[in-house]
Amino acid sequence: MDQEVEIISSETRKEKIKNFFINNKNKLISLAIFLLLVLFSFFFYQDYKKANKEELANKYNTAVIEYESGEKSKIINLLKDIIEDKDKTYSPLSFYFLLDNELITSKEEINKYFDLLINEIGLDKENKNLMIFKKGLFNSEFANENELLNILNPLIKSESIWKPHALYLMAEYYLAKKEKQKSKEFLEQLVSLENINEKIKLEAQKRLRSDFSE
After folding, report:
1. CB-count exposure of residue 106 (10 Å: 0-12, 13-18, 19+)
2. Predicted structure pTM score
3. Which one of 7, 57, 58, 199 is most buried, by most CB atoms within 10 A?
């Protein structure tokens, strides 16, 4: 009797499964097609990214190689195009090449590219913080106090490895402005930090002794 019940139950389960597939055939086919499309799109996107990366690498290398002998305006436009592609590797490299070789001099344009690289290309945390510090360093020559603090505050209020550099930059900025008390405050904040680069800490201590000793 138990065996007959078990056989009936088994047949019932099979019938339910069969009916489920029959009743939901269109949905299941649609789901399978959707999953295949997602899988295809993923691999297509990976191939696209790889090809795009190789193209950007070729463009960047061409610009660097042709810099001395090539047409400067063409090289500048090529590097700017790479920046606009928002690639984590070649966009910063292109920007630094333009900046280091003084191929762009407009403060507005330079800061525009800094903001693009900081906010739009998904740099990892410390590379982003390095970019913020470099923006602060660039602007320290002409920015007013509030502008420079607004740039560097994300570092000053963080635990980033670039925090001591930001503090030292602000100290130097105020010292150049003859605002010694503010400069001293930033240096004292720097030397009070733990687990920081010893070289910059020693520089801050020397600055305190040489410029602020009674």
Report:
1. exposed
2. 0.76
3. 57
Contacts of 21 (CB under 8 A, 6+ apart): 28
| Closest-CA residue to 189 (of 214, 165, 154, 213) | 165
From the number of C-beta atoms within 10 Å of its C-beta (0-12, 13-18, 19+), residue 171 rates as buried
43-99 per-position pLDDT tens digit: 545 544 566 678 888 999 988 888 888 788 889 999 999 999 999 999 999 999 999
Give the side-chain half-sphere CA count within 13 A for 2: 0
What is the torsion angle, in degrees rounded to the nearest 10, for the CA atoms of residue 84, residue 85, residue 91 and residue 95?
-20
Q: What is the CA radius of gyration of the chain?
A: 30
CB 110 within 8 A of CB 97: no
* Rounded distance between C-alpha atoms, residue 142 and residue 130, angstroms: 20
List, for residues 103-160, the tens digit of each pLDDT value. 999 999 999 999 999 999 999 999 999 999 999 999 999 999 999 999 999 999 999 9
Residue type, 123: L
Please report how many Cα atoms fall inside a 13 Å half-sphere around the Cα of residue 110, on the Cβ side.
20
Query: Is 208 within 8 Å of 184 (Cβ atoms)?
Result: yes
